[in-house]
Design goal:
Elements (H helix, E strand, L loop, with lengths): L3 E6 L7 H8 L5 E4 L8 E5 L2 E5 L12 E4 L7 H13 L8 E3 L8 H13 L13 H9 L12 H22 L7 H15 L6 H10 L4 E4 L25 H6 L8 E7 L2 E3 L17 H8 L12 E3 L1 E2 H11 L3 E5 L9 E10 L2 E3 L6 H5 L2 E8 L16 H14 L3 E5 L7 E3 L7
Parallel strand pairs: 1-7, 1-8, 2-5, 2-7, 5-6, 8-12, 11-13, 12-16
Antiparallel strand pairs: 3-4, 9-10, 13-14, 13-15, 16-17
The chain binds guanosine-5'-diphosphate, 6-O-phosphoryl inosine monophosphate (IMO) and magnesium ion.
The site of magnesium ion has 5 residues, from loops.
Length: 436
């Protein structure tokens, strides 16, 4: 029987979604992206090869698996083409396995210009620290009903008329409000048409194809990008991305009924990281050599895949995780990068916060309240042995098992998978998401 699994990040992104999606693809006929854009950076390590994927779903490395980009994704066609070229140069066939929804809003030059000009104009304390890829302005155009959608590019006259109107508006904002240069109509027009031509054979009715896969008994994997705490509604607003990153978005962003999402796997790093600005209650000092934050940063190689920025590091925040579990309807957790904590003598788990003199057990809404949250910690013993590469639960040091058990106890959800290294087989399976 067909079973559909949704993989989402429960923190601020970079939880290791790509590794787990790739690992799960042996059970799926297709992998679907349903939100975000090329702000995502999903790293897959398979033997000597490392793949950094932004838009192409993480099913592409497994032969025979189909990949879909749903209508909820904002599409930089030029970037997609360069990603396809890199993959194909490495011997991975993409073009005959990738299907793209014609409903995707297209990221064009003025979105990137707006994203960067806005960030430049913000005072230091107000900068979001976006990836500068034009994601926010493209979602704004979508919601305000002026977006160019992929299908618009195949009607030259209509696209030209639409683009003229849009540029009149955006160039006014760019020059008059943001003090930036205007964007040239012809450059955007010619580039978009040339790119559109190249991806035309991959455009398909994604919603209908996914329905057909399920109908014939095939299972699907929905690959979230970013993380729940970056969700436009539920995250630490306004320090968030501009899409819904939660599991429910898999339905709207791919055109499947919510009843067909059977299991939600919440990917959770054994500690926390955040790239870009915004409140982070359990943040640690990363500079002092040998300190826990420094170990997370160095051993965890916590540098952003997309922008190369250093990721901020901190203790695992269970008050935030519990919020994510509720919002996503998490069926089971996958704890990743447990090995990064190897050798720390003491670990801390944030179980709640003090906020205005009161204890709260769940992450509050919005950045202002979160900024005032003082974490309450529970201290646990670390372990001296190694978890790196462990493939069975019994191999884990007792203190590591105790750490995981405590997470299950506080969050009231089972840890179904544990990741102990970047490679596929560096994984402990307790309950299979496709079998559960
Ligand atoms: P994503 O955006 O959620 O897909 O995560 P990223 O790929 O941006 O960041 C996760 C990084 O950690 C990647 O470099 C992975 O190769 C690596 N990784 C994933 N799981 C593990 C793990 O269990 N242990 C270690 N040491 N590295 C991991
Ligand atoms: P993956 O899928 C981590 C962050 C940016 C910034 C904020 C808004 O690899 O987990 P945007 O360009 O989206 O408008 O930036 O969101 N951000 C991510 N952080 N992982 C990601 O994706 C991210 N995608 C966006 O750093 O703080
Ligand atoms: Mg990433």
């Amino acid at each position: 029987m067909a079973k559909n699994v949704v993989v989402v990040g429960t923190q601020w992104g970079d939880e290791g979604k790509g590794k787990i999606v790739d690992w799960l693809t042996d059970h799926a006929e297709g992998v679907v992206r349903f939100q975000g854009g090329h702000n995502a950076g999903h790293t897959l390590v398979i033997g000597k090869n490392e793949y950094k994927l932004n838009l192409v779903p993480s099913g592409i490395v497994r032969e025979g698996v189909k990949c879909y980009i749903g209508n909820g994704v904002v599409l930089d066609i030029h970037h997609l083409l360069s990603e396809i070229e890199t993959l194909e140069a490495g011997g991975i066939k993409v073009r005959d396995r990738l299907r793209i929804s014609p409903g995707c809003p297209v990221i064009l030059g003025y979105h990137v210009a707006l994203d960067r000009a806005r960030e430049a104009q913000r005072a230091a304390c107000d900068k979001i620290g976006t990836t500068g890829k034009g994601i926010g302005p493209t979602y704004e155009d979508k919601v305000s009903r002026r977006a160019v959608r992929l299908y618009d590019l195949y009607d030259r006259e209509r696209f030209a008329a639409k683009l003229r109107d849009i540029l009149e508006y955006h160039n006014f904002v760019l020059t008059q409000h943001l003090g930036a240069d205007p964007v040239d109509f012809q450059t955007v027009f010619d580039q978009a048409l040339a790119d559109a031509d190249k991806i035309r054979p991959m455009i398909a009715d994604v919603s209908a194809e996914l329905y057909a896969v399920n109908k014939s008994g095939g299972s699907l994997l929905f690959e979230g990008a970013q993380g729940t705490l970056l969700d436009i509604d539920h995250g630490t607003y306004p320090f968030v991305t501009s899409s819904n990153c939660v599991a429910g978005q898999a339905a709207a962003g791919a055109g499947v009924g919510p009843g067909r999402l059977h299991y939600v796997l919440g990917i959770t790093k054994a500690y926390c990281t955040r790239v870009g600005a915004g409140p982070f209650p359990t943040e640690l000092d990363m500079e002092t050599e040998g300190a826990p934050g420094n170990q997370m940063s160095v051993k965890g190689r916590e540098f952003g895949t997309v922008t190369g920025r250093k990721r901020r590091c901190g203790w695992l925040d269970l008050a935030a995780l519990k919020r994510s579990i509720i919002i996503n309807g998490v069926s089971g957790l996958c704890i990743t990068k447990l090995d990064v904590l190897d050798g720390l003598t003491e670990l801390r788990l944030c179980t709640g916060y003090m906020l205005d003199g009161q204890r709260v057990d769940l992450l509050p809404m919005g950045a202002d309240e979160v900024t005032h949250c003082e974490p309450i910690y529970e201290t646990m013993a670390g372990w001296s042995g190694t978890t790196y590469g462990a493939q069975t639960w019994d191999e884990l040091p007792p203190e590591a098992r105790a750490y995981l058990h405590r997470i299950e106890e506080i969050c009231e959800v089972s840890i179904d998978v544990v990741s102990t290294g970047p490679e596929r087989d560096e994984t402990i399976l307790r309950r299979h998401p496709f079998g559960a």
